[in-house]
């Protein structure tokens, strides 16, 4: 009985460690080639923020026309749509994955990981991902370094630590789930939603919002995506913020909303699983 319980614990840890940041930090010497070293936060960017923003805008504009319950009329008169989007596409939206394929040229989804005992992973299901593309977003509640997260972090493998100490809790269960829903409801601005809670379900409206399920690479599985921090610009359209899978823990946070995206390190084809590397600061 004890051996059986020990085996279950070991299996759970093997899955947990693929996302557990302290485990990564304690194993630097064994997995140095899985790390991407940066000297400061501004050096972590493989692509300019403007390119990340453009990708999000392209997807969100098409999502609001095909799935957005609110403010569709605001975008109807705009011309900032992908060239391949026809009026028929605007009126008859497919699934979020289909909209993603129309706007970005590829789609991703969650599936059982190809890594033994790693649980869920994220795969490119259709299309082609060019190097430097925004492939996914890391959803969750954003905590500043001084804000409390102890209770939410207990047995939570989905807490992502940014270079400057900002934390993103991407857990879609338990107390983390309740905190995100509460903060999202608090920040609603009249008829405008400021964030998206659908990533907490099995059917996220924003198909990018599955980045917390991207497994870390290993010595055997090289990384094909990496994390990149992205502060939401003030000019980001208010009617498109309903698709953002992030929200600040405190309403009075005096800094832009921190988002974390995953950017492709190379061309990625349909059927491949996404594997990320973790950056470390070097001085």
From TrEMBL:
Name this polypeptide is given: SET domain containing 9
Originating organism: Acanthochromis polyacanthus
Residue ranges of every copy of the SET domain listed in the record: 106-279
Coiled-coil segments: none
Superkingdom of the source species: Eukaryota
PANTHER family tied to this protein: C5ORF35, SET DOMAIN-CONTAINING PROTEIN 9
């Amino acid at each position: 009985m004890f051996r059986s319980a020990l085996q279950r614990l070991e299996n759970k840890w093997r899955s947990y460690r693929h996302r557990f940041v302290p485990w990564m930090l304690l194993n630097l010497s064994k997995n140095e080639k899985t790390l991407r070293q940066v000297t400061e936060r501004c050096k972590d960017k493989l692509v300019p923020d403007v390119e990340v923003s453009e990708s999000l805008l392209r997807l969100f504009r098409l999502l609001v026309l095909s799935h957005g319950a609110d403010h569709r009329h605001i975008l109807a008169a705009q011309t900032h749509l992908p060239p391949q989007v026809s009026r028929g596409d605007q009126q008859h939206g497919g699934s979020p994955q289909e909209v993603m394929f129309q706007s970005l040229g590829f789609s991703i989804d969650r599936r059982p990981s190809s890594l033994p005992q790693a649980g869920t992973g994220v795969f490119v299901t259709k299309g082609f991902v060019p190097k430097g593309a925004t492939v996914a977003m890391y959803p969750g509640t954003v905590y500043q370094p001084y804000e409390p997260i102890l209770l939410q972090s207990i047995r939570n493998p989905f807490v992502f630590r940014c270079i400057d100490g900002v934390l993103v809790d991407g857990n879609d269960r338990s107390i983390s789930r309740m905190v995100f829903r509460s903060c999202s409801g608090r920040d609603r601005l009249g008829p405008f939603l400021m964030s998206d809670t659908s990533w907490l379900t099995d059917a996220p409206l924003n198909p990018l919002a599955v980045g917390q399920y991207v497994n870390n690479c290993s010595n055997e599985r090289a990384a094909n995506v990496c994390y990149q921090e992205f502060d939401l610009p003030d000019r980001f359209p208010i009617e498109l913020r309903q698709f953002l899978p992030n929200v600040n823990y405190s309403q009075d946070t005096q800094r832009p909303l921190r988002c974390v995206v995953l950017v492709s390190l190379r061309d990625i084809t349909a059927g491949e699983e996404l594997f990320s590397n973790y950056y470390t600061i070097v001085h």
